[in-house]
Amino acid sequence: MTSTLTPVRSKRSALTKGQLPKYAPYVVLAAALILGAAVLALVGFNAFGWGVVSAILFAIGLVSWSAAVEGSRKAKDKLATCLVVGSFLVALLPLVSVIWTVLVNGIPGLLTPGFLSSSMNGVTGVYDRRAVEEGAPVLGGIYHALLGTVEITLLATVISVPVGLLTAIYLVEYGRDGRLARAITFFVDVMTGIPSIVAGLFAAAFFFAVVGPGTKTGAVAAVALSVLMIPVVVRSSEEMLKIVPNELREAAYALGVRKWRTIVKVVIPTAISGIASGVTLAIARVIGETAPILVTAGFATSINSNVFSGWMASLPTFIYTQILNPTSPANPDPSSQRAWGAALVLIILVMILNLGARLIARVFAPKTGR
Amino acid sequence: MTATPLTRTQGAGRAGDKIFSGAALAAGCLILAVLFGVALFLVVQAIPALTAPAAEIQGGAGFFAYIWPIVIGTLIAAVIALVIATPIAIGVALFISHFAPRGLAAGLGYVVDLLAAIPSVVYGAWGATFLAGQISPAYNWLAQNMGWLPIFQGPASATGKTILTAGIVLAVMVLPIITSLSREIFLQTPKLHEEAALALGATRWEMIKMSVLPFARPGIISAVMLGLGRALGETMAVALVLSSGALTASLIQSGNQTIAAEIALNFPEASGLKVSTLIAAGLVLFIITLAVNMIARWIITRHKEFSGAN
Question: Which of B40, B46, B105, B256 is most enclosed, with most CB atoms within 10 A?
Fold first, then answer.
């Protein structure tokens, strides 16, 4: 197609030099799809390869056509656009693939009777072998892990929110760019980057030193999660407190209200929607953490509702152990079915928390007069 | 709050003020204490491993011989992740900030943030059960056609559970971080610079090359550094995906190991000196990520002062 258009270009002056017609991308796309299908038909067709080959052909076709008609600058622009759009599509691939895999593998697990209401206590490889060989129902569930996740996350929230919120108040209301405030801001930023497993090791090392070697309970895991959660709470609350208009504070001071009453009665209520949604997002971040729980709470197969004693299961560690060490090593299918069911539950929890955060921010947002 | 019944008298309100500001100050100091405590307790628990005779450490050749292969493995996995994720993340950020239609941009940003919301263990499970199986034919092809390169030396792993697969999963996990940070910086580019470039007849790509990218370069560098910090410390993707082993140059054979995965795989059953060894490994990881993060933050603050002066 380029050869027919080249002579046309040479006849025109530099100013009226041609542009690609509006329909050009669609023509090239259609040609690329057909050509891609033809190429793939030769080596064996699959949808993924078709998409990749067609995308490459589309980029080559459009850029070379543009280079022939419009010149190299416009062609470079087209190439950049193709690459940028292409990178976005590439980024969507794993997202779609992960969600698809979790849905396809997780729904059978989730729909098994008793999945949400039973634990793994007493479920041994014998039952899993029977499930594979004789078609008996897959036993065992995630009740203990769900309970552990909820309790550990709640305890972590109870620890992190007061500390995080008070720190944010210090930074915004009292610190005011002092040396300590700047140090805290810097180290909160640094804390955001602590690897989750190091937070777990810290909690483990702390309790080993204070309580005794080998201390592994839900509370230790909650401390580990707090280390990860506090910086997130501080950052989001700080941002929210900063945007509370100064006029509100000054009006309260003018009425003779003490500073702490101003903060509790005026500043925090104004910012509460943002703070609440920030806290919800922080919970969503730590609820899926695996490594810190693995090194601090161990893994249990039976129900343990006491966070202060004994090993405790949680959804992420449940998924991890079921995939890495199936209950019946010879028949891993029931274990992976349970793991994907748990993964689906975990993703649903995280999504609910994320949507909840957005809802909270919208519903409780203060009415602005301006 | 404890002073509430006393607020009738003059001095009590002042006491409430003092208690409240004291509590806020204490919370702030607690954070500094926690970070200090992280370092302190890791050091205290790690000392037995650092001082123990070489023969008692796993591998029998001392702590240094134990740690350096997994440090290298950690770096390899993180570098693979960044090499893959950085160009794609910058492309996605540019797409959302400068290419996508205005109405769509916010929604697309949310879609990329969804990637960050998926728990790491789910990525690990996906990488181990789906991606590894799908990608192993590609490794065979690489081993046959590019095997003369040491990094693609065959025979390729039949299960696909290699450091390259782990790196790809890590790339997916750091992608949203780099994307959201660089997107924010792209949006901060002075509108006048962009419009001046367009008014001179620049195409969109030339405008981005001349005004957006030079402005955003420090921001992109620090975003990549923060992504590096995350990739270094990520545990589950590697622990589930990689079938670990000794340090090897080939990326498509099973082998190599990272610090975080080594800790996660061995800590639950460890006891005695082994616990100290693993905590010492955690200390090394902590120091590496701390250095990376501090450099990144330092670049950001310097950039802030610079842009504030404009």
Answer: B256
